[in-house]
Known about the structure:
Bound molecules: 1,4-dihydronicotinamide adenine dinucleotide
Low-confidence stretches: none
Helix content: 40-55%
Mean pLDDT: 95
Strand content: 15-25%
Structural class: alpha/beta
Distance between the termini: 22 Å
Largest sheet: 10 strands, mixed
Amino acid sequence: MAHTITLIPGDGIGPEVADATRRVLEASGVKIEWEVHNAGAAVAEKRGTTLPDEVLESVRRNKVALKGPIGTPIGKGFRSVNVTLRQALDLYANVRPIRSLPGVEPRFEGTDIVIVRENTEDLYAGLELMIMPGVAQSIKLITERACARICEYAFDYAEKMNRKRVTVVHKANIMKLSDGLLLEVFRKVAMRFPRIEPAEVIVDACALQMVKNANKLDVIVTENLYGDILSDLGAGLVGGLGIVPGANIGISSAVFEAVHGTAPDIAGKGIANPTALVQSAVMMLHHLGEHTAATKIEKGLLATFQSGVRTADLSGTAGTEDFTRALCDAIGRA
Ligand code: NAI
């Protein structure tokens, strides 16, 4: 039976990596019917909105979407599409596995952590005001409910994925109430998961530890802003943004997308690395229960990297097309 899935190609390199990912999925043998919808800068001028209603309706109906990066025009009164999408669909958990791939530089080898980022509140709640000319205020919103469900998600994920530890990342020494609330809830939730070791680390110390000994952190659970920043640091640990996948998980729908943005500096040049979106699609296949197709793509990716085919961001010479063709061939042999 074919799965009906919403595809939002996005802006910049989005359509290039989305097209590559569609071909890779096809090569894996999984049957997908795509509902393609545009959002972001591509539709802003024509539609007067960056997120037309039918996009949200399609994701709500299909419950699963694959999404390319989206740029929100700055200073034109548009709200971030990504933030709006995550809030409208209540995609509260942003899961980002940071894992090294073979054949990428040795200094990037051996990293294997997962960042579980709260996706709906914190400084991203959109609560900003000008108190008076020259004085702006952004409100950091942290609720017990959101802390509880993200901590529960992280511990549950750790148990299911046979991880040993969940580390909460915070700055409760300074933000005693907001980050203090996260810490308090984390400690309570941890008691319900005796097989998983809980750990606590302040966000600045976490940045250091990620560079020195990332794997000790194992599964990180954290607020929206810290998770956003640490994800890019994590990407740097495994070779860059061209690799790292992500999933936005809610109660009734899930949107799979790479960590990277629209990469305007390389858009349209045919050199973008599609690996991050391909790996996001692999997460999507596991979510759909299509484990055989997911494993085929994982094996194909390993074989492609081991054979030395790499895009320019990983110091290789392959363009998006060469890489995609090599990957599809490898999947055919997997
Ligand atoms: P970016 O991730 O687009 O680019 C940062 C650097 O990484 C650039 O040098 C780029 O060429 C490189 N890069 C990123 N992905 C790559 C890939 N797949 N292959 C090869 N190189 C890659 O971050 P930036 O420049 O800060 O953001 C650009 C735009 O993207 C902004 O409008 C931002 O708001 C948006 N954005 C959207 C996201 C989303 O839709 N989820 C996430 C992050 C940013």
